[in-house]
Amino acid sequence: MEPHNHSSLAEFVLLGFPKVGHIKGWLFVLLLLAYLFTICGNTLIFLVIRLDAALHTPMYHFISILSFLELGYTGTTIPKMLANLLSEKKTISFAGCLLQTYFFHSLGASECYLLTAMAYDRYLAICRPLHYATIMTPALCGKMAAACWTCGFLCPISEVILVSQLPFCGYNEIQHIFCDFPPLLSLACKDTATNVLVDFAINSFIILITFLFIMVSYGRIIGAVLKIKTAAGRKKAFSTCASHLTVVLIFFGCIIFMYVRLRKSYSLTLDRTLAVVYSVLTPLVNPIIYSLRNKELIKAIRRTIFQKGGRASPTHH
């Protein structure tokens, strides 16, 4: 095979789920059902929160943005996974691969910042309830959301530029279920120590700093909840945070192991498994976690689906 550099390399081959054999059809059905449920669940939560005036609060504002973000996050990778399961030609163009990597990481970084904003919102609501309404104003909510999106989409730019300048030799099979920095770096035919170090520095800053901020916020929240004298009061206060904390632990647990490391890969099988968890399962369970543990949201969904007019109608300002 003739060697190629990055300027002449037209496409990569995404190996996806190797050795699935006769269960490929079942895997396609499961992945498709998961994707459809993710779309329907997150779209429902987003629309219900936007249409129901009773849910126009900072907490639900951030939940609706998270649901909208998950739609883009899954749309970046899952459709290509589904197409590759049906196609014998599992290719993606060089530019397409870089774009997929960029949007996957930019949306992932945005989610890190958004989960941090949600933790700050819960901290203010529980630890500083008397000042909550004056601090967490609609204007501040809008600015925080805009900052999450802006910072998220700026973060991966330097990494993508560095990868785009690498020379890629003849072997172009990506040992992963979608395009990502670690498997791309393993295909480069030059030393990628600089890329690995830059990736580690950026990922460590984004992931560890936001995770630390979230954990500090919840440490203070737990301390405040434990001071509540009645058991019913403690249960009510912490129930509003339990769903958010569950999402945080699942999401950050996977991405810390996957991206905060100085090695390109520990295990291809482990990398694929973790990728399925944070790219497919986390967006899938978000609607379940937020709806099952939230009586207000369940009531709003029932109002929106089963009632006409009233609060289910769009509000006009």
Q: What's the gyration radius in Å?
A: 21 Å
Could you give a short account of the major beta sheet?
A: 3 strands, mixed
Query: What percent strand?
Result: under 5%
Reading off the top of the CATH hierarchy, the class is best stated as: Mainly Alpha
| CATH topology name | Rhopdopsin 7-helix transmembrane proteins
Which word captures the global form? globular
- Spell out the CATH superfamily: Rhodopsin 7-helix transmembrane proteins
Total beta strand runs: 3
Average of pLDDT:
86
| Widest sheet, order of strands | 2-1-3
Individual helix count: 11
Oligomer: single chain
Explain what the structure shows.
With 317 residues, the chain is mostly helical. It has one domain (12-298): Rhopdopsin 7-helix transmembrane proteins (Up-down Bundle). 72% of the residues lie in helices and 3% in strands. The chain has eleven helices and three strands. It has helices at 24-51, 58-86, 94-127, 129-135, 138-154, 157-164, 181-185, 193-226, 231-259, 268-292, 295-306, and strands at 11-14, 91-93, 173-174. A three-stranded mixed sheet has the order 2-1-3. Helix 1 (24-51) packs parallel to helix 10 (268-292) and helix 3 runs antiparallel to helix 9. The longest helix is centred in the middle third of the chain and has 34 residues, at 94-127. It is globular. It starts with 10 loop residues before the first strand and ends in an 11-residue tail after the last helix. 36% of the residues are buried. This is Olfactory receptor. The chain crosses the membrane at residues 25-48, 60-78, 200-226, 238-260, 272-292. It is found in: Cell membrane. It is a multi-pass membrane protein. Putative odorant or sperm cell receptor.
